[in-house]
Specification:
The complex is a heterodimer of chains A (336) and B (573). Chain A is mainly α. In chain A, 74% of the residues lie in helices and 0% in strands.
Chain lengths: 336, 573
Amino acid sequence: MSLKSYVVTRILLAIPMVLLLLTFVFFVIRVMPGDPALLHFERRVDPAALAEFRRRLGLDQPIPIQYITYLGGLFVGNFGLSMQDFSPIVDHLIARFPATLELAIYSMLFAVILGIILGVFSSKRYDSTTDHSIRLFGIITYAIPVFFLGMIFQLIFAVWLRVLPSGTRFDPHYIPPPRITGLYTIDSLLTGNLWAFMVSVRYLILPTITLGLVLCGIFIRLTRTNMIETLRKDFVVAAEARGLSDSRITYWYALRNAFLPILTMIGLQFAVLLAGAVLTETTFSWPGLGTYIVDRIAHRDYTAIQGTVVFYAILVAVVTLIVDLLYAAFDPRIRF
Amino acid sequence: MKRSYAIAIALVVIIVVGGIGVYVFLRPPPIANLVVMGTTDSIETVLDPARAYDYFGWSIIGALGSGLVDIEPGSTAAPDDIIPSLAASWTSSGAGTIYDFTLKQGLTFEDGAPFNATAVKYTFDRCCNLTGDGLYHPEGFQLGIGLADVIDNVTVTGEYTVRFYLQFPWAPFLQTMAAQGCFIVDPSHAPKDQLVNYTAGNPRGSHAVGLGPYLLQSWSRTGGTDEEIVLVRNPNYWDAANGIPKTDVFIIKFYETDTALATAMTAGEIDVAYRQLSATQINAFRANPGVRVWEVAGPFIQYMCFQQRIYPFNETLIRQGIAAALNRTNLVHTVFLGTAQPLYTIIPEGMAYHKPSFEIHGEANYTYTQTVFDLFGYNTTHKLDIDLYYESSGNYPQSAEQALFYKSNLEASGVMTVTLTGLEWASYRAARSAGTMPVYCYGWYPDYIDPDNYAFLPFATWLNMGYNDTYPAGGVQQYNLWVWGRSNTTDSGRQTSYYALQDLQAQECSVIPLYQGGAYAVSKTTIHGIILDITINFRQWLIYWGAPATTGPFLALQTNEISVIRYQGKFDY
């Protein structure tokens, strides 16, 4: 199978997965107790207003028709209308997604870099106190609840030391960089505003470290295990016999070989990262998709909840697909 | 290898030091006279008086707009506390059915359009659909209180004079005119038959009003979730000559959780924290010398309801026995940590005509409970099984803890066994309407600040408690007293009727008042001018920076000071 065929096959496999998930979400939302339309009317319910409300959201249609309409809409990027103000949900997702993406990218980078560094370091000092300490650190960070870790950091760095902000995305006393990509760090650089870049970084530090630390544990363990195995292989011994430096053997030969499982794990951990982002964003009042879905749940905005969950599902499917493709690019054996 | 490490460490140090240098030395000068407030609240729908019916929406409309009259800040919202706003003066005639307002002259909306009597008529024709081509939104304040049943028409009698004809004498008319739901809209921005909705990137197009102390510079909102609001001084505000607003820029940051809000306040990242902090957080701030806590007894109440179509809750003595078993003093100290106060009548303390009639039942008065329960065969060996429902999705504060407390109270009598059931809000309200919950707790936040808006709760039809079915005579008696109270134009007459009504309600116990919530704000010690009162208008424009103040609780209003908004009308409750 060529790489092209592999790509096509993976995309075709992703379609039923997403379809199954969005079908599940659609029907779960509809079998939940309570009438979502009634929630929007307090003491007195005007039947005409209620009927109009249902009509605008398509809730007056039979469920199969609603389902077909919903599926049809998704194919053209229509995630439906918010129950709160009838605004298109896709606009909300576009507005909120960059904040989550920015947090996700930096958190994943932090987790992977720290995980690999500590994993390699641990493998090189196999069965030493350092090795045990790093393993313990990995277990603790993996097990600790993300919101708890975030609150501890807030307490130390924002309340006690007052060196980092406790939450939100930008200093409220100043105007954020103009939106180009929606990623403040990128937008501030694109507009040549170094100060805004530093403010953005400052506001990113605590949520990034919080989410990154929770994720890094698994990378530490994975890197360590793979490196220990790789460092015992014949080609490493051969490299040592040829007089190559220790760092070249470790980072150039051994780590490259140990990296493939880590790459797979990045894809798998992306879903965990999005779930963690909901709690991290809530803890740090980070205005991304996580806080958006929490807020929509609080407002019983069922259509927005449905749209966001489906968006998350598509996102995870796409990232998994990209990682698989990267894997195929890194490892020629995958193509055939 | 060591050289590589050294290079890496040097690079990291350079990046960190360089970053800090950039942050410190390139920092633009901060905006002077700026206040940042944090909140977990949000604007429920729109900034249009024809639809907005939520606390925070009204708060922002209050900053961006003005009404014909206002309520004296810090006052008790009594008739004497009505002060001029857009109207310079007013008179009442026709036995309270005609109000003539003389408007201030020379005022303009943001885009320069003049404010005059036509704008006033337009506002009420629009929001009450008085001329058949406006709005009367099914979820709006106007329909909520039936304002179109009160106002017959609005007539322009001159460029700066306008007359309101009422369908009947309605004592709280001026207080209603001070409500944000009656703020004047800008005809050029508020179509007569359409709401003004949020428009991303277009702050002026996102609200219907004008003429307020502030202009809306920006409003970041995604799908009904607010992120930030920036208000800037309106140089054309009618009271600008008196230095209002006292702050040039007022920024509101929205936080996801009360924990995040409290952390930001403690860390000094925001200047004011307002709505909502938990009882624990408020108590922690009370003990913090670095902040000021501003507090007042608020208008929110909770009460216990009985489905009186279900035996034995149709028995007055049973309900009295339950009322006697409750210990409200312990409730406010254990569940609310002293941030609420016990309530012994449906009209909250601090409001006129409040009479704690339920005190006749005592507190944890188990002797009385056992005595009356024994009449129905309930005793320590044959206990009454009670299914007590509570709302479990956060609609009311500490609902689960409250429910556990009530269970403990009632079971301590020895003649009751309580089973708790929590329902999320949608199911809870549906069960209320279906009349399937034997005993349940409900909350009330008033539409307007008057005893009239509380006194009807024990026989409110939408609570569907079956009270009127089971006790038609009692229901009629309560209803008549209520109507007498709202129709009476004399202070003594209203007092007589409301006192009698509260005594009757304490006897019949169709609902049992539980507690009254408080309103709180926390600020830096250098923040001044926060005025909390029974209206719970936040009045951002009066807040200013000053010298550090003595810390500690600041009680904006003492209880029992509150006067009332006189009220009379015909409403469909």
